[in-house]
Structure formats: C-alpha cells, structure tokens
Design goal:
With 248 residues, the protein is α+β, with helices and mostly antiparallel strands. The protein contains four helices and 15 strands. The relative contact order is 0.19. The structure holds magnesium ion.
Length: 248
C-alpha cells in the first residue's frame, strides 16, 4: 500500500528535510585531512538534536552511527568510527532526520582536500543523475521514468549504476514502498500521484556495478574496488514541479 501524504504531513517532512540539508552542509565544513568519520558523526548528531529532531538512522535496523559515512570504494552504509580522512579521499554523508514522527533522507559526496579529476567528474555525474531522476517525479509519469532517466544518463557518462540498492518511498518510516530503482526497468511500475514522497538516490561506480558487503555486515563496497559515489534527496510530487524536501 502506497501512502500519499497530505500537505500538512509534507510540511513536517520539509522541516525534517531542511535539517537534513543543513546537517550535510554543517558536517561538510569539517571535512579535512586528519578528522575521523566518528568525529563527523558526532557533529552531525549534535546538530540534528540541536534542532529538536532525532537522527533517523541511529539504531535503524541496528545501525550504530547517526550518519552513514562511506569512503572511496564504499558505496553506502559506512559506519563512522576511527578512520581518519586523507587528502584525496571522497566521502559520502547520508543523513536522516525525524520530526514529529516524519522522516527525510538525503546524501551528498565530498572531496577531502584535492581529489583526482576522475573523482571530481564522478561527483558531478552522480549529483546530476539525482536531479535528472527527481525531475521525472511528475503527475502522469510512472516509476520507471525515474529509473530509466537516471540509468540512461549515467551510462552515457560511461559509469555504472548500482542495482543491488535502490531508492524508496519515505514518510512515517524512513523506508516505505515503493522501491525506486536507479536502473532501467522492463515494466513501467506504478503511476505517480500527488503527495507521494520518494527518496531518489543513485549510487554510481567508476567500474562495474557489482557490490559486496564487508565483514562488519554494514559497509557496502564495489566488488572491483573502484570509486563509488552517492547522492540523495527526498522529494514530493505536487501538481507542478517536484518539491525537494532535503534542501537546506
Ligand atoms: Mg535513502
């Protein structure tokens, strides 16, 4: 069952989403060689709580951190800890916030100091793929319009898209129906309705699309060890343009 949200509910999700965007912005200010991902996590958690909200990922399915922080070949679900950021790393910050029982979920990837040209391009393509997908969130469109637009774009840029993890509906729960794949779909899926809220989150790899989970049972890495990038916004379908909920 796919729940559409009322205007009041979307307003609450927008408030949660604004804090998600602000948290990513705030934490990104501290990204520099020498800091640990655990320190970034603490900064993020304190920021979310200072706004009267709850870090949505803390304890979600047992996740130990507040923010998922993934380095280089890590795709998603990196656990913050003692790892020290080094010049040339790329790291993604995946942040969720809960406000009055409503959730928002967003992510972005940043370079640590100077990064390679390839890494710069990967960040740009992944960010653009996210907005290209969200732009398909319009009345009368189908779920596969989002998936196909993202995949077509990423493939044209000669990168691969992860298929083992997908975007999702969002609302009272962080992960709701429907799944929002980032790769081409053979069937159109459900038609998009006003008030549906979706988290669109392409994961883009420089090499092949395959991923494996590390022994910590959380961290997803590329199978071939090549760089991976993640971007995400939660957005609502309206009568007109999609409303991005996770902008600061
Ligand atoms: Mg998500």
């Amino acid at each position: 069952m796919i729940g559409t949200k009322t205007k009041g509910e979307i307003d609450l999700m927008r408030q949660a989403g604004r804090v998600v965007g602000q948290t990513i912005e705030e934490v990104s200010r501290y990204i520099k060689p020498g800091i640990t991902s655990g320190e970034l996590d603490k900064i993020g958690e304190e920021f979310i709580r200072s706004r009267g909200m709850i870090p949505a990922f803390k304890g979600l399915y047992g996740f130990p951190g507040s923010i998922c922080i993934s380095f280089n070949e890590e795709v998603v679900h990196g656990i913050p800890g003692d790892r020290v950021l080094k010049e040339g790393d790329i790291i993604s910050l995946d942040v969720g916030a809960t406000y009055k029982g409503w959730n928002a979920d967003g992510a972005a990837t940043f370079g640590v100091g100077k990064i390679s040209e390839e890494a710069e391009r990967l960040l740009k393509v992944t960010r653009e793929a996210t907005y290209i997908g969200i732009d398909q969130m319009r009345l009368g469109h189908y779920l596969y319009d989002i998936s196909n637009a993202i995949h077509d774009y990423v493939e044209k840029q000669r990168y691969s898209i992860v298929t083992q993890y997908v975007g999702h509906g969002i609302g009272r729960k962080v992960h709701e129906e429907p799944q929002v794949p980032n790769f081409r779909q053979p069937v159109r899926g459900m038609q998009l309705k006003k008030g549906m809220c979706l988290a669109v989150e392409p994961m883009v790899n420089v090499g092949g699309p395959e991923t494996v989970v590390q022994p910590d049972e959380w961290t997803v890495v590329t199978k071939d060890g090549t760089l991976s990038c993640h971007w995400e916004h939660s957005a609502a379908i309206t009568d007109g343009d999609p409303l991005i909920l996770t902008l600061p």
